[in-house]
């Protein structure tokens, strides 16, 4: 683990394309450098759907966080692999519905840390906190989150766009298991990632040649394993636009997601 952290934790380097900044570029944000835009454009050329994927991913996050807040009664959130602030950050979605919600954000990208101020704009009734750490170090993250969250009460664990960066299947599964083990019954796990397809694979190839950290596209079956032992909320593991859609005719995209409850 320590060795992995050394290898992958990004430094603030404007010459190496980084996932948080490329994602921000696809989402229409301004917190990115020329190298990020270059790789972002190259991937978009090979796989034009990528921008739609990024937007559909954030739209899923809005629906999933709203669901666990309003229907699941969740008031605590642990968002691992937060990304750069954008419209509708987790605390804004949750606190719109339940102002007393408590949110802990976790990311290891130094630029996300620089912009963390925008994530710390809690309602007076609630609280937001930011942990600058490698999400794979669950013990460290859980200890830091304990400052803000009460692990005796249900928590929604969010991993959106981060598990693909944990390219070793066993390491990714262990990471999810360690977090879920720390949560009480009635907690939720919300996860999303890019999913494997022939077209998406070309984007993955370009990404892994040039960007950091590496990314592994998993298919629906592989991704579904992260929910083992949990009760999936309907409609189960599906393409992001198809999870409790609000659009009239949602189309399948190569992004897979699910929400599950710990019994
Ligand atoms: C593709 S972005 C997704 C951002 C956001 N969750 C969303 O869905 O829009 C992935 C984020 O995960 C972060 N990340 C990747 N690996 C990580 C790790 N091992 N520990 C902490 N953060 C990580 C990146 O820095 C980046 O901000």
Q: Could you please describe the fold and organization of this structure?
A:
The chain is of the alpha/beta class and 263 residues long. It is built from 10 helices and 8 strands. The protein has helices spanning 2-8, 19-26, 34-46, 50-70, 90-97, 110-114, 138-145, 169-181, 198-210, 220-224; strands at 76-80, 102-107, 127-132, 156-160, 188-194, 231-232, 238-239, 255-261. Strands 1, 2, 3, 4, 5, 6, 7 and 8 form an 8-stranded mixed β-sheet that branches. Helix 8 links the parallel strand 4 (156-160) and strand 5. The radius of gyration is 17 Å and the shape is globular. The two termini are 29 Å apart. 46% of the residues are buried. Mean pLDDT is 94; it is low at 1-7. S-adenosylmethionine is lined by residues 19-20, 23, 57-58, 61, 81-83, 106-109, 112, 134-136, 160-162, 165, 213.
Radius of gyration: 17 Å
The major β-sheet equals:
8 strands, mixed
Which parts are unreliable, with pLDDT below 50 for 5 consecutive residues or more? 1-7
Q: Helix coverage percent of residues? A: 25-40%
Through-space gap between termini:
29 Å
| Contiguous helical run count | 10
The proportion of residues in beta strands is: 15-25%
**What kind of assembly state do the chains in view correspond to?**
single chain
SSE order, one letter for each helix or strand: HHHHEHEHEHEHEHHEEE
Residue-averaged pLDDT, rounded? 94
Number of strands: 8
- Which word captures the global form? globular
